[in-house]
């Protein structure tokens, strides 16, 4: 039996696609389904892309994008690069109670680029943590070169019971801290990069029950596609690399990451095939 996977974090909105918007997104989803991907989480980074993620998930569920698609869910949030922007639109989206909307984020801290002042990043992050608590949704975190402040804000606000550290870029120490805090840790195509020894070492600190895999497409295409436009169809390559790094079988990683994603993002992985 072929392995099936979930891409727990990708960006298929018009801003990120090289082609024809919704048609290109549908084609990407169809390729992913043909590659054994039964669930996809499309993640917003600001108001426009968050609304587009919700629309994509709704269109996939309704059949408007055609058949042969995975189950698609959406997360809405304000990326740390956008932290100086107003976040009231997010409160309105969450109040609407859309069934496709299952997460808050991606949000967090990015001190590598620091496109927004650190204080503004911390403020926006804390606000979105509070929203995840209030609405009982999964918190999707972006973290880069900001670990101490990240954990300080999380300790102050309280880690939501369902929290994902996406596209993990730290090492074993940071991975252990995430697991101790109760988070799921999601690995991207970085795990396949020759220079990513720390990330591969971190995999060994994450128990299967805390493990997710993702593409973060269109970014970070895994080897052997590095440099190309990434897409959800390539998440099995990430999963196999995670299995090799952690000393598991590919089946163990596929099964655990699929079950974890289904729980965290309310994915219906059987119904993902309903439009065939």
Intertermini distance:
19 Å
Number of β-strand runs = 8
Number of helical stretches of at least 4 residues: 9
Mean pLDDT: 95
Oligomer: single chain
What is the CATH topology classification name?
TIM Barrel
Number of self-contained structural domains: 1
**Widest sheet: strand order?**
1-2-3-4-5-6-7-8
Question: How much strand content do the residues show?
Answer: 15-25%
Give the SSE order as H and E letters: EHEHEHEHEHEHEHEHH
- Report the structural category: alpha/beta
Give the helix proportion (percent range): 40-55%
Rg is: 17 Å
Query: Which overall shape is indicated by the principal axes computed on the Cα atoms?
Result: globular
CATH architecture designation: Alpha-Beta Barrel
Q: Mind summarizing the main beta sheet?
A: 8 strands, parallel
How would you characterize this protein structure?
This protein is an alpha/beta fold and 276 residues long. It has a single domain (5-273), classed as Alpha-Beta Barrel (TIM Barrel). The protein is 40% helix and 17% strand. The chain has helices spanning 22-34, 47-62, 88-96, 118-135, 147-157, 172-180, 197-203, 235-246, 250-265, and strands at residues 5-10, 37-43, 71-76, 101-110, 138-144, 163-165, 184-187, 211-213. It has an 8-stranded parallel beta sheet. Helix 4 runs parallel beside helix 5 (147-157), helix 6 (172-180) runs parallel beside helix 7 (197-203) and helix 8 (235-246) packs across helix 9. The longest helix is centred in the middle third of the chain and has 18 residues, at 118-135. The two termini are 19 Å apart.
